[in-house]
């Protein structure tokens, strides 16, 4: 239906994570195009997008080659029933397999939430069929502060109170433990002792729950949206040992940390620790198409083999899983990531960014901690350095609004932990250069200057 261009646009859009009452009467603010690390609004103002969309546009905006691949695939085979096989889908599965340090099979879906739901179901069915335990293992252990998605199972695994209020109870069988959080660890513990203590708590939790009831542990190698929590070096290897000791499947959620974000191709590579199942989305096709993937080790895949007609196969289908356009674009996006060594750029520019933060705002009393790996970075805001009390809500939102006015989009751990949404998150496209890193630092410094004490 044609709309008169002079009439005001009705706005029926229900936006995520948005308090709509505050928008009443405000005209819609449209973003209309994007290039590199910048998005541009309808008035022609450009914004440096330090969140890469939502942690996903790793190769940057405006890559014509990705649009070309999508167009060619749409013209040739725009969709296929996923129980049949499209060539780009099979090719992309093989590419992912080649990049990982273990042999496995790839199940495609359309988002990170679905990728994690899929991992939980695979883990449970694997235990049922592998015959290693007399009891049905169904519990999933995850960590406070982590985000694993918005569907009921992935939300149940999520350890962020504010994302769940009003939507619980979720499905039973989800248990949480504390993650390493060096900035807020007990001051008497060394970093290594803190890592050991958190791993010990995980082991105790498995024992207390009854190890024969625990199907899987899921964790992001680095908690991302929950505040960029980087574990001590001993933590993930200890988690691996513990999962092996109790026969628990270890799932790494690399929806954010996959494909170069942390300065290596996958987050777990920093600690030389392999999972049994790994999940991807977001940067998998660099945000150009919706896609998720769950890769299970071959031993797990093998437990699904059986005779035709029995029920040992994976009885799930995702209408948009393995979408030929999404996988064709994903293949190209991964090729670009590798060819341009975007992980290397993330490493170098990330280090520069943290160095600049340290020298420009490190002494500010509202800056509690500056941390990150590659281009996954955070500035933890506090009332003052001594108390470490999280900075008040008005201070955090005021800083972000100030930066937005000045053309820099900043993120934070919004609606995560009640009273603790005080962490700025900086996760830009992996093509970021030093000049744009300086702009981010300037915007945060100016925003800090605008906080009323
Ligand atoms: C670590 C992690 N896992 C899973 C998800 C869920 O992904 P999606 O929003 O594509 O469902 C997210 C989304 O932010 C995430 O950050």
Helix content bin: 25-40%
Structural class: alpha/beta
Q: Distance between termini?
A: 52 Å
CATH architecture of the largest domain: 3-Layer(aba) Sandwich
Evaluate the radius of gyration: 22 Å
Outline type: globular
Mean pLDDT: 95
Bound molecules: pyridoxal-5'-phosphate
- Can you identify the CATH class of the largest domain? Alpha Beta
Uncertain regions spanning at least 5 consecutive residues: none
Strand content: 15-25%
N-to-C SSE string, H for helix and E for strand: EEEHHHEHEHHEHEHEEEHHHEEHEEEH
Major beta sheet, specifics? 7 strands, mixed
What count of helical segments does DSSP give?
13
CATH superfamily of the largest domain: Type I PLP-dependent aspartate aminotransferase-like (Major domain)
Tally the beta strands.
15
Number of domains: 2
Examine the coordinates and then state which fold CATH places here, giving the name of the CATH topology of the largest domain.
Aspartate Aminotransferase, domain 2
In spatial order, strands of the major sheet run: 4-10-9-8-7-5-6
């Amino acid at each position: 239906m044609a709309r008169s261009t002079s009439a005001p646009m009705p706005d029926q859009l229900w936006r995520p994570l948005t308090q709509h009452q505050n928008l009443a009467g405000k005209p819609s603010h449209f973003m209309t195009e994007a290039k590199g690390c910048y998005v541009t609004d309808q008035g022609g103002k450009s914004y440096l997008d330090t969140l890469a969309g939502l942690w996903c546009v790793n190769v940057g905006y405006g890559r014509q080659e990705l649009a070309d691949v999508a167009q060619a695939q749409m013209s040739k085979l725009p969709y296929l029933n996923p129980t049949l096989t499209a060539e780009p889908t099979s090719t992309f599965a093989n590419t992912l397999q080649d990049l990982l340090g273990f042999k496995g099979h790839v199940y495609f879906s359309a988002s990170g939430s679905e990728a994690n739901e899929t991992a939980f179901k695979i883990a449970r069915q694997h235990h049922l069929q592998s015959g290693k335990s007399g009891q049905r293992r169904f519990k999933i252990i995850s960590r406070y502060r982590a985000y694993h998605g918005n569907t009921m199972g992935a939300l149940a695994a999520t350890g962020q109170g504010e994302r769940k209020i009003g939507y619980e109870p979720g499905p039973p069988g989800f248990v949480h433990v504390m993650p390493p959080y060096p900035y807020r660890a007990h001051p008497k513990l060394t970093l290594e002792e803190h890592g050991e203590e958190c791993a010990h708590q995980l082991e105790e939790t498995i024992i207390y729950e009854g190890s024969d009831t625990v199907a899987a542990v899921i964790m992001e190698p680095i908690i991302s949206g929950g505040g960029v929590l980087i574990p001590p070096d001993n933590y993930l290897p200890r988690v691996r040992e513990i999962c092996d000791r109790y026969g628990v499947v270890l799932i790494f959620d690399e929806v954010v940390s996959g494909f170069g974000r942390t300065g290596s191709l996958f987050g777990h590579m920093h600690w030389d620790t392999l999972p049994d199942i790994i999940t991807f989305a977001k940067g998998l096709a660099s945000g150009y198409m919706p896609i998720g993937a769950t890769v299970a080790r071959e031993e797990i895949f093998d437990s699904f083999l059986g005779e035709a007609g029995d029920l040992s196969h994976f009885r799930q289908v995702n209408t948009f899983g393995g979408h030929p356009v999404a996988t064709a674009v994903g293949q190209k996006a991964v090729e670009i990531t590798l060819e341009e060594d975007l992980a290397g750029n993330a490493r170098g520019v990330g280090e520069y960014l943290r160095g600049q933060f340290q020298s420009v705002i490190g002494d500010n009393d509202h800056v509690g901690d500056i941390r990150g790996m590659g281009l996954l970075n955070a500035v933890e805001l506090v009332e003052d350095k001594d108390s470490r009390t999280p900075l008040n809500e008005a201070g955090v939102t005021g800083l972000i609004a100030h930066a937005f006015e000045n053309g820099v989009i900043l993120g934070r751990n919004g609606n995560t932990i009640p009273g603790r949404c005080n962490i700025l998150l900086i996760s830009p496209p992996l093509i970021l250069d030093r000049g744009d890193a300086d702009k981010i630092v300037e915007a945060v410094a100016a925003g800090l200057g605008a906080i009323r004490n």
